Fold this sequence. Notes:
By secondary structure, this protein is an alpha+beta fold. It folds into 2 domains: 1-53, no CATH class; 58-192, D-Amino Acid Oxidase, Chain A, domain 2 (2-Layer Sandwich). The protein has 4 helices and 11 strands. The protein has helices at residues 127-134, 137-158, 160-168, 223-237; strands spanning 2-4, 7-9, 34-36, 41-44, 58-70, 96-99, 105-108, 112-113, 179-192, 202-206, 209-214. The strands form 4 sheets. Strands 5, 6, 7, 8 and 9 form a 5-stranded antiparallel sheet that branches. A hairpin with a 2-residue loop joins strand 10 and strand 11. Helix 2 packs across helix 3 (160-168). It binds flavin-adenine dinucleotide. Flavin-adenine dinucleotide is lined by residues 40, 65, 109, 185-187, 215-221.
Amino acid sequence: xxxxxxxxxxxxxxxxxxxxxxxxxxxxxxxxxxxxxxxxxxxxxxxxxxxxxxxxxxxxxxxxxxxxxxxxxxxxxxxxxxxxxxxxxxxxxxxxxxxxxxxxxxxxxxxxxxxxxxxxxxxxxxxxxxxxxxxxxxxxxxxxxxxxxxxxxxxxxxxxxxxxxxxxxxxxxxxxxxxxxxxxxxxxxxxxxxxxxxxxxxxxxxxxxxxxxxxxxxxxxxxxxxxxxxxxxxxxxxxxxx
Length: 242
Ligand SMILES: Cc1cc2nc3c(=O)[nH]c(=O)nc-3n(C[C@H](O)[C@H](O)[C@H](O)COP(=O)(O)OP(=O)(O)OC[C@H]3O[C@@H](n4cnc5c(N)ncnc54)[C@H](O)[C@@H]3O)c2cc1C
């Protein structure tokens, strides 16, 4: 066991260039071969010794969630939050109506596989991000399982009429002319090697790290509780006094 000060620390699967961690398995000391360290682009180049050297069980796959909003004269259709009954096979709820604090009403989001990690627009594509998704076996397993739903989401992304049909299951009176396009967000969705979409918070601990691997909805609502949980774990894990 190695020590940091008086704290015993076991590190596994690390790569410290120019020095090796003295204990634990699968620690290496090599140039990690990243894209552009000076500009903060830490993606691994082909041939990097870090590729497949870790024990990370999940990979992040981006899913864009697109919104419409009700035009002002039709906001009265929605007096509260209106949600569908969730399908437990999927981590995404399906489109719903959300009354916002400023008085507006959002309709959405869908859940479309994004071709760019920060792909807030439907037509954003990053070849590198596509390669990263395509080189993860879990992505293909996920697509094999959920291709029908995935195509449906793309259809609802490209066709306003299809999006509106989804919303009409909740409010039959809503029409396309009641809605205008609004913003979008990208979910950093953890996908298992099996292709399963991780649908719960995933917080893992090693002796000197606490990693938040998956923070899906409702992580915004639960953010204070998650923060408290991590702070408590850190107090125990790192023997921090109040
Ligand atoms: C469409 C959509 C709908 C959602 N609906 C809900 C909901 O109804 N209720 C709910 O509770 N949750 C909802 N969520 C989920 C919620 O928004 C996320 O789970 C939550 O924001 C995750 O928090 P986070 O701190 O992990 O990440 P984020 O909130 O994404 O924060 C990460 C921050 O790090 C910054 N960052 C990233 N990379 C770098 C870098 N290299 N250097 C510096 N800064 C960087 C980003 O700009 C960002 O500000 C929704 C998410 C989406 C996408």
